[in-house]
Specification:
Structural class: alpha+beta
Number of helices: 6
Strand content: 25-35%
Helix content: 10-25%
Order of helices and strands: HEHEEEEEEEHEEEEEEEEEEEEHEEHEEH
Shape: globular
Distance between the termini: 58 Å
Largest sheet: 10 strands, mixed
């Protein structure tokens, strides 16, 4: 007889302190010891996590109204431009936005983390002025406690697999995948493999709109499928995508977050990004879910993409497993190449264990998705057209 569990049953066990919670790394040995069927009976929730650069990150802020009030049209936070095309005192600040005075040294990611840390942020805004919003300029200081809403809203996080990067040219490349040395001098990658959330739920059975998650040290939620959601990609026999696939749009209260789990990063000669910590619990609803979460690095493959080719569709030099990547070196056509992770596995393990602890204590219940993600979504490309071809 097949084993079936519901969200209600698992949450009831969590409330009573009887649920068995393990991380995605711990469950591998449990399955080897007990087998799929008995492991499914035994384990109720598996926690997954990632901590890596996620450029598509930002925050919505509401400053409150001054006296007299202003309808902000140009806004700067510590000299970093924020988008004000919303309402009078609402803005969105993106992590990759650069300071007008400091350039790549300081940007939106730094402002967000300074806010989380309770630091004062210099606000400067201008306006054309209206009858109902007569003020035309304002300069003041804000903190996360002085403003109203402050919530992180990230349009694309938590990639379900991602290509590894290499450089076959004779010059050094400075990219969002880090520095790529010439002549295949290194390979960089940015996925936590067997601990990665979306690789443990490849067909999005438990991760969807409304899923409750760990986000940067606080409770957050999946708000929508992420941008560039490519669920209709090529997959292997276990439904694991062989390159970038699903993504998540996530939201959470910035005021409750910790900069232990969200940090700015500056990639040399490229720009600013943000390391974001995300943890997602996966309920073991049946044996198929247990098979999914027992995936190992040796069974997860990605493509090695040549970033020196200045085209949208860059060539692949072959496929490699995360076990090979994590070994620190890959043999590619007879050449041994050093591998460098961008994601922080140690921090991801910490997040998976924190989420495990929250659930064990009954402080975090599972939320069934209110809507599932599409399984056949394809990406559109931006084609250059003239007026005559539109």
């Amino acid at each position: 007889m097949s084993i079936k569990k519901s969200y209600e049953e698992i949450n009831e066990k969590i409330k009573k302190g009887k649920a068995v919670i393990v991380t995605a790394e711990e469950v591998i040995d449990i399955v080897k010891e007990k087998g799929i069927k008995d492991a499914t009976k035994y384990v109720d929730v598996v926690t997954t996590a990632t901590f890596g650069p996620m450029c598509s990150t930002g925050a919505f802020l509401n400053f409150g109204h001054s006296d007299p009030p202003i309808r902000m049209s140009k806004v700067y936070l510590n000299d970093v431009p924020a988008y004000a095309g919303l309402a009078a005192v609402d803005v969105y600040i993106g992590a990759t936005e650069e300071s007008e005075s400091k350039g790549k040294e300081y940007g939106g990611a730094h402002v967000i983390c300074d806010l989380i840390d309770g630091k004062k942020i210099y606000l400067k805004a201008t306006s054309k002025g209206t009858d109902c919003y007569p003020r035309k300029e304002i300069e003041t200081y804000i903190t996360k406690d002085s403003i109203n809403e402050a919530y992180l809203f990230n349009p694309r996080n938590c990639y379900q697999n991602y290509n590894a990067a290499i450089n076959t040219s004779d010059r050094r490349l400075y990219t969002y995948m880090g520095i790529l040395k010439p002549n295949k001098g290194n390979i960089t990658y940015s996925t936590t493999g067997q601990l990665s959330p979306m690789l443990n739920d490849p067909l999005y059975r438990t991760i969807g709109i409304g899923t409750r998650i760990f986000l940067a040290g606080a409770v957050g939620y999946v708000s929508w499928q992420g941008t560039q959601f490519n669920s209709g990609c090529v997959r292997d026999e276990r439904d694991i995508p062989l390159g970038g696939a699903g993504t998540l749009a996530v939201i959470g209260n910035l005021k409750e977050m910790s900069t232990k789990y969200i940090k700015p990063v500056v990639f040399k000669r490229y720009g600013i990004s943000m390391f974001v910590g995300i943890g997602i619990p996966i309920p073991i609803l049946d044996e198929d879910m247990m098979k999914n979460v027992s995936i190992e690095d040796k069974d997860i493959y990605t493509n090695i993409i040549d970033y020196s080719v200045e085209k949208r569709n860059k060539p692949s030099l072959g496929r490699v497993s995360y076990a090979q990547l994590r070994s620190g070196k890959v043999n590619l056509n007879g050449k041994e190449i050093k591998t460098i992770p961008l994601s922080n596995l140690q921090k991801a393990r910490e997040i998976a264990n924190i989420l495990k602890d929250w659930i064990e204590k009954g402080d975090f219940l599972l939320q069934e998705p209110i809507q599932k993600f599409p399984l056949n979504n394809k990406l559109n490309a931006l084609e250059i057209k003239t007026v005559s071809t539109v």
